[in-house]
Amino acid sequence: MDLKEIMAVNLRRKRHDLEMTQEELAERAGLSARYVGAIERGDVSASVTVLGQIAEALGIEPGDLLKRSARLSKS
């Protein structure tokens, strides 16, 4: 699994944990909901700047979105 896929899974999981919609996350991060959806699907790679905006909107460290979890490493 590459970093783009790891970020997609972590982003979706964290957003769901916070019971936040893609639209809410997009608004908080200053992005379009369509772009957030594309990142979550792994269709596009987020820049470091966008990674920071998303992490801030979620209240986490940017690196948390790039960490391979135990669940992911078994895939």
From TrEMBL:
The UniProt keywords, alphabetically, are: DNA-binding
SUPFAM superfamilies referenced in this protein's UniProt entry, alphabetically: lambda repressor-like DNA-binding domains
Residues covered by the HTH cro/C1-type domain:
11-65
Q: Name one GO molecular function term.
A: DNA binding
Q: Which GO terms describe its cellular component?
A: cytosol
Q: What is this protein called?
A: Transcriptional regulator
